[in-house]
Design a protein that fits this description.
Blueprint: H1 2-8, E1 10-22, E2 25-42, E3 48-66, E4 69-88, E5 91-94, E6 98-112, H2 119-178
Antiparallel strand pairs: 1-2, 2-3, 3-4, 4-5, 4-6
């Protein structure tokens, strides 16, 4: 556990662009991910197993455009990802990453684009529609975030797991095979 913790355990802090399409609205902006990767051993008689855990939050600042409206919002996505790693004398395997995410958003402004004619009426209708569909949009955003988080987590772990496997084979398995 200590050996793998030295290779894996670290904070996660990165920025990435946001590009999405939710309920007919094109979304653009930035997202800041803050989290940490930790390890949890799993009891097993046949092999050494452990779960790599990534938990954290994604803070986003976005704008959406659905003609003739522009929506400015912020969001927070809480997430938790788990990847099981199995270590046997003949194999070092990792299972697919499982992610759960939950997104909550705050709409800061809704503005009509393309001139001021009828802007109050259009904006009032847009606010009502946005409030009605907000929860559905949050659920869709959560489902869209999960594969992106899994892909990012797998990318961060691939080098570390490769190094852990190489160290295991060179420093533990190969000397035991030679003996």
């Amino acid at each position: 556990e200590n050996f793998i913790n030295r290779l894996i355990q670290r904070p996660v802090d990165n920025m990435q662009p946001v590009r999405d399409f939710i309920l007919g609205t094109r979304i653009r902006g930035t997202a800041h991910t803050l989290g940490s990767i930790t390890i949890r051993p799993v009891s097993s008689l046949a092999s050494a197993q452990f779960d790599l855990l990534l938990s954290g939050n994604i803070f986003s600042s976005t704008w959406g455009h659905q003609h003739p409206i522009r929506i400015r919002s912020t969001g927070r996505t809480n997430f938790f990802a788990t990847k099981r790693v199995v270590l046997r004398p003949d194999a070092f395997q990792s299972q697919p990453t499982v992610v759960t995410a939950n997104t909550r958003t705050n709409i800061h402004s809704i503005r009509k684009t393309g001139g001021q004619f009828g802007h109050r009426l259009v904006e009032r209708i847009a606010w009502k529609k946005a409030c009605k569909s907000k929860r559905c949009a949050e659920q869709i955003a959560s489902r869209h975030a999960e594969p992106k988080i899994a892909s990012s987590f797998d990318g961060q772990l691939s080098d570390a797991l490769g190094q852990a496997r190489k160290n295991y084979e060179q420093n533990i398995r190969d000397p035991l095979v030679r003996r």
